[in-house]
Amino acid sequence: MTDPTAPGDGPALLRALHQNQQRLLREATEARFRARIVTAAGIDPEKLSVQGQRTLAWLTGWDTPTIDGLVEILSATRTAAQVAVHRKAIDRKAEALRASETATAAALARYDEHEARRHDRD
Q1: 68 and 37 in contact (C-beta within 8 Å)?
Q2: pLDDT (0 to 100) of residue 7
Q3: Is the pLDDT reported for residue 69 higher than 90?
Q4: Is residue 30 in a domain?
Q5: 70 and 34 in contact (C-beta within 8 Å)?
Q6: Domain-located, residue 4
Q7: What is the rounded distance in angstroms from the CA atom of residue 30 to the CA atom of residue 15?
Q8: Residues 23, 29, 35, 39, CA torsion sign
Q9: In angstroms, rounded to a whole number, what is the distance separating the alpha carbons of residues 22 and 16?
Q10: Which helix (H) or strand (E) holds 121?
């Protein structure tokens, strides 16, 4: 079996191999960064608009410290939003409880009035 490459092709082949390895490493890093951003934001990237997907792709090309900071900001924002949602739910439940207590107190007052009238008739 003969080698189809010329002897002078060695450096070019090594450069191409190195570039391919660098590309594969970059793609793996960007995929990891993408997963971290998506998880921190709590989003479904498939539901993003074309512009949103372009922006996400752009963000994944940044360096590790920038991605770390972005993930921290997204996580804090998501946590704050979840707290706000829970706070609203708690406020609604508290309001419903107050309304129920008010209705119960009114029903007890009506019952007491009814019982008082019934005892007056007896």
Answers
A1: no
A2: 60
A3: yes
A4: yes
A5: no
A6: no
A7: 22
A8: negative
A9: 10
A10: helix 64-121
Residue 89, domain extent: 10-121
pLDDT tens digit string along 2-16? 555 566 677 888 898
Q: Domain total for the chain? A: 1
d(C-alpha 67, C-alpha 65), whole Å: 5
Average pLDDT over residues 56-84: 94
Q: Are 45 and 34 in contact (CB under 8 A)?
A: yes
Residue 62's CB is within 10 A of a number of other CB atoms, namely 15
Residues 6 or more apart from 34 whose CB is under 8 A from it? 45, 56, 57, 60
Burial environment of residue 34 by CB neighbours within 10 A (0 to 12, 13 to 18, 19 or more): middle
Q: Does 60 reside within a domain?
A: yes
Residue 5 domain flag: no
Angle at the Cα of 109 (from 108 to 110), degrees rounded to 5? 90
The tokens describing 37, both together, are 């951003």
Look at the alpha carbons of 74, 77, 79, 81 in this order and tell me if their dihedral is positive or negative.
negative
**Alpha carbons 82 and 69: distance in angstroms, whole number:** 20
